[in-house]
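Table 4 source record.
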Amino acid sequence: MERPGIFFEDARTCIINEDIFTTDKIPEKSVDLVVTSPPYNVDIQYNSHDDQLSYAEYLDFSRRWMTRCFSWLKDDGRFCLNIPLDKNKGGQQSVGADLTTIAKEIGYSYHSTIIWNEGTISRRTAWGSWLSASAPYVIAPVELIVVLYKTSWKKTSGSRTSDISRDDFMAWTNGLWTFPGEKKKRIGHPAPFPVELPRRCIQLFSFVGDTVLDPFLGSGTTLVTTSRYNRHGIGVDVDPHYCEIAVRRIEEEGKAE
């Protein structure tokens, strides 16, 4: 029997085609791990999201969706937030620091910040003053994965079965991750992240069989990864076109490792 708002569902995956602020399809304290990359508010042309909010509006938007995720997390749940360190489009803003501060005001506890060096970012469109100390711009070509948790960092719920290798554990607990980004044309979405990002977060911060949520499903990368690595995946997206892309990718790329 079909349920309104459920775009796709099988034994391991659920895609919800509803607004993140109004959906009632996710029970409170049911999620072990949130892995997401929210809109960056840098005028990316999404189908159904205005990515040109004022910075104050963007911070309010961020506070509201992170508050919803907080209610869905279990007490020992974790939250991996992929965001820019800063931005200069529309004015210099300390995005990473501001969203981390808001998360702590909501009630999240801070654990650590992972620096993601894509190695391929080439966004230099403005230098400020050229070869002059009058007004140069300094832009770090990295992104952040801010790692937060709800109440207890020590995870006691779930299967307690991990599937991470020794070498990966040693490499990934070093907080500088270097791997390339994803190509927009291959995925058909204006701002995809690569499978490697949720893979590391999922294997490092969750047990086999845990429930992982991406409240901004987009092209479905997080749920492709949960399907590959034996987690239950929940994704939310207001745009049915992106839900279609996600379903196709899960069917084509989500084979268990």
